[in-house]
Design a protein that fits this description.
Two copies of one chain form a homodimer.
Chain A: H1 16-27, E1 34-36, E2 43-45, E3 51-61, H2 73-89, E4 94-104, H3 110-126, E5 130-138, E6 144-154, E7 169-173, H4 178-189, H5 205-209, H6 215-223, E8 229-233, H7 237-248, E9 251-255, H8 267-272, E10 278-283, E11 292-293, E12 296-305, E13 310-313, E14 320-321
Parallel strand pairs in A: 4-5, 9-13
Antiparallel strand pairs in A: 1-2, 3-6, 4-6, 7-10, 7-12, 8-10, 9-12, 11-12, 13-14
Helix pairs in contact in A: 2-3, 2-6
Amino acid sequence: MLNANCCYHLHVPSPEKTLISRIRKLAGSGKRSIIKGIGDDSAILRPPSGHDLLVTTDFNLEGTHFRREWHPADSVGHRCLARGLSDIAAMGGEPIAAFMSLALPADLPQEWVDDFLRGFLALAKRFDVTLAGGDIAESKSGILADIVVIGSAPKEKAIQRSTARVGNIVYVTGTFGASAVALKALFASGKNSKRLPHSERSEGWGRHFYPEPRLAIGRYLRKHRLATSMIDLSDGLSTDLAHICEESGVGAILNQNLIPIARNADLDLALHGGEDYELLFTARKSAKVPVEIAGIPVTEIGWTTREKKVLITDCEHPAKKLAARGWEHFKR
Amino acid sequence: MLNANCCYHLHVPSPEKTLISRIRKLAGSGKRSIIKGIGDDSAILRPPSGHDLLVTTDFNLEGTHFRREWHPADSVGHRCLARGLSDIAAMGGEPIAAFMSLALPADLPQEWVDDFLRGFLALAKRFDVTLAGGDIAESKSGILADIVVIGSAPKEKAIQRSTARVGNIVYVTGTFGASAVALKALFASGKNSKRLPHSERSEGWGRHFYPEPRLAIGRYLRKHRLATSMIDLSDGLSTDLAHICEESGVGAILNQNLIPIARNADLDLALHGGEDYELLFTARKSAKVPVEIAGIPVTEIGWTTREKKVLITDCEHPAKKLAARGWEHFKR
């Protein structure tokens, strides 16, 4: 826990205790469901009664999930928390608290830590999430953050991946490929993102650096019982749809002409690019799904099928198998 | 979450998806309060109604918290989980679920991962804790594990650090310094622990490699409303008592003749050694605290005071200030 209660801790940018005090001060006391935040052996939370608890945890490792020369520190903080909030959105849940375990290199400038915390806490504030604990350690190489987000949903109402049924309609929110376009530009330039001229910045710049978790949409779908299953799109449409199909024991067929492709992106990036942090959900064909929820377009892209394959068609040729290729840029 | 839902994941000892399947199989479906474990965007838990939720998170980093040449993989797995369980014990709580984020070097032998999981899951099984999720990533240097343990305690009954009152009696469970004796032997030998002859192994060997979280004692103290405050002793008696005093706004005076020192240890290791994973608690002087709880001796070692200093006396000389020196061996 974020309480200096760790065995062999040493030189972090501020000495550990000072850093914890700073974080504790910045985190504030939080909302009513936080009985005790930072400063004890465990945090004490009191989720709404009659709710199930949602818990999600995500690693964010320098070189794997972000690069210091590409991602400003406040973007890293934002993205860390956005990933967890997006997981809560995908369950139709409400976030309550976040826990942040940070391992930092001894030579990391204090300014980086401050900017990271600023990005993290600004997003936390917007969604009324309390930073309620974590851990601090020194890292021998690179920045490591493990973020836990705890949320809740009314009992038995969380929307799972495993509950799609044959003959459901497959919907997605927003558009696809914008984040991948930005990342592609970064890879191509190899440059420090801060020095990239504005003309080289894609439309997906903001989508990549400051993704927006779709909590309002998840909540709407849960409240109106519209979704039979749901997942957030972090790996890429092809991979995440495969997860839904695998967990639900169904297949799917997509109409590639219906995929909402972001400006400057293409079908390949839209299908496999990843990090769009949109939602994919399935609904019964009788469900009245709005064409827009919370200002974001909702698009029908296909159906679930009894045959346990994920297929895609252009309506001109026979349907082909859609490989789950996710985002593979960092792969060797 | 432990669901392959991560952006740029690559070569872990088993390819990521295979490793997740193995963990999912080993973890099992768990107890009734786990509605959904591994395999969705979030885990879904249903803690007992009328309970507050306890959340604790601890980093376990190779080179900082353990060394591969000293600690067998199953000990690392055991210790990772024991730290979190000890935090839940210190609140008087019951553990429910654990979440394990693992970053592993690409060249780590599969055998190490299997042994680690064996150690982790054997302890989890003993305390009826379900491994309900986590994350997997590749590490560029060393093994990293971030462990979250979620537990619960009846509403408003969790025992905090900040609630000691002036004139309380200070108690500890068990004996102190055994783990530090073992670590000292490892430092002195610089050897691979598996090759250390039995004669060089201290009595604290098991205490260091396989610490026992004091959950039964924490539960007893909470049920019988005996403790006014509590903390687990991971950093060392001197440092952890300082935490209680700081959070509660009190001081303390210890009688050094009363400190229960483990065989082969000395007063210095007992006060500052750390990693004993015993409990320190305070109680009103009228409280009927047993001399033994769940087979472990409970010892009175001093009192809390209005003067906000931590003092220690041998009863022969004036009391001296007890510096919070914790465990400092790894410090540069």
